[in-house]
Amino acid sequence: MNRQLILLLCLFLPWLGRAGEPDSTADLARVEGLAWMTGNWRADTDQGLAQEVWTGPRAGSMSGMFRLITGDRVTVLEYIVIAEEAEGVFYQFKHFRPDYTTWEGENPPIRMKLVEAQAGLAVFENTVRVQGQPAFITYRLEDDGRLSVFVGDEVNDSRQYQGLKFVLSKENPMATDRRINYLELPARDLDAGCARGLAKSDTAIAPVSVGQPTS
Fold this sequence. Notes:
Elements: H1 3-19, H2 24-28, E1 39-45, E2 48-54, E3 61-70, E4 73-85, E5 88-95, E6 110-118, E7 121-126, E8 136-141, E9 147-154, E10 161-170, E11 180-184, H3 187-195, E12 205-209
Antiparallel strand pairs: 1-2, 1-10, 2-3, 3-4, 4-5, 5-6, 6-7, 7-8, 8-9, 9-10, 11-12
């Protein structure tokens, strides 16, 4: 092997070794970097029972739900989507009432951009400041495994903040290793079931467990 070939190998082999390594900063700036938020979270607070649920990231998006139950009444209900867009990762949500109308009415959802992402930390900032909307939402995975959520706003543009903080513990995950298939009954049974309001075992669609998902 001549000296020129040895020199070329010395120059390019280290670069080739790095080419396959993941760029952790880029990963964390995408939805996949927020996988640590996945799960069912809850906390008993002075305001009532706080619950937050997140699906795992897939196809560049995550879906979430937050609700606050005070006594026997749902006082806050939010449906949330985190999704990748051309300009970055955005967190959007609306507040819903039990009749499925929203606090925001015909206005667009509250929209925040992911402005900081590290392992176990995500900061979403409201890029369009609207009175009554939070300035930012921060998610942090604490050392003890709990999830801290801080919904904050600036105090008179002083870079000091006030807001609400929830520290939620992860609940036992729901069983996700079984898939439900639905089998239709014969037409005559279907008609009979409909006539009786699908009572008892004469349901039009019967759930059948088929074991491990094949994905």
